[in-house]
Please model this.
Amino acid sequence: MDTRGLSDIARRLEEGTASKSETFARPDASTDEAEQGWLHLLNWHQRAADLQSELKAAERALAEEMTDENLVRLKAIHAELSGLSRL
Model:
């Protein structure tokens, strides 16, 4: 990390909360563990961003047409977002 000029970033990451709660972010994690953890986190973040977009679309759909189908979709997205936030 030092040779790439990333030692300050590495130090800040080590001091952060992620390294305390996520084993893949710890300095002693294997490369494979770090990669798998990072990919999981990246996928989680992408799914959360996708759900936010879906939520806005579902809210617009319900505002335009108050149907049971649109309401069910909105509730399903809320439930999935709630599940993501507990991870």
Q: What stands out?
A: Residues 2-85 form one domain. The mean pLDDT is 86. The longest helix spans residues 31-64. The chain has one domain: 2-85.
